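BUG: 3D viewer hangs when loading the predicted structure for this chain

Environment: internal workstation, default settings.
Expected: structure renders.
Actual: progress bar stalls at 90%.

Input used:
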Amino acid sequence: MSTIDDRTDAARRAPSMADVARHAGVSAQTVSRVSNGLQNVDDSTREKVLASMRALGYRPNGAARALKSGRFQTVGVIMFTLETLGNVRTLDAIAVEAANADYSVTLMPVPDPTLGAVSGAYRRLSQQAVDGVIIVFEAALLDQVEISLPPGLPVVVIDSNAGANYTVVDVDQALGARQATEHLLSLGHRNVWHIAGPRSSFSATHRADSWRNTLEAAGIEPPEPRYGDWTTDSGYRLGLELGARPEVTAIFAANDQMALGAMRALHELGRDIPGEVSVVGFDDMDEARSFWPPLTSVHQNFREVGRLAMERILAQIEDPSVQQDTVLIPTELVVRDSSGPAPR
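Structure tokens produced before the viewer hung:
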């Protein structure tokens, strides 16, 4: 005969699969099928089991399911910073797509953008319960040497050139910079000055290269780019420098924050936008339409980047033999009031 203590212990312990089976009046095997999402259970029985799970507060043992299936339903994300608009929105899209696929996300920030730091983070994630890794690079270090990670986990790389060994998903940086530069030239500006992002940034380097190539293709000698650090403060400082030069009539900034800083400097210098100087940014952040004047900017589809990255990593998890490829998401120039015809 059970004692009061026995009943108390039973009440305190977490409900088991056998408890659910007794409550629902089915076999433990049926509960296991429902718990693992198998389809060979009729709808009425499935609903009965799920109702019993809810009533008893039963939670399937994820570790046990992982041992049986070889899947942890988790994707790791290695990311250098959460301070940039692109990284935050990309991570948000990855998390949304992961949830839609019944996956969770383990984030591992890496403050040091070096191959060694990335490899170390990858090794740490490979020792944890993750099925694949998405790496978001904000560094040009892979232009010098292809990434080399220990084998074992599927990998998708965002915002860098990882070579043929890994799937890469990115916005078409070169297309966006070309759209911005050609737009300003089409308005009659004789040259376009560029406020670039950090030299260490992959995306900034490719935007600057495309800006330079577009000017040269038009028979224009590119002026020396000014390098900022993505912040409004650096855009303001460089805007004061460029705005003091009367020959500067068009500025292409590598992101919207630096464009905002440059516009503030131009306002303080008394230079009309776009009557005397046109300004184009890159990112098309939500606030761009509220700048004064509203900012012409290159739109990046960060949600699509995150969605495709998650789609590619899930494909590799399902089939490790999936061929690696590079996917570039097109950009779109959104023309607003900060760009206009060159002054006569």
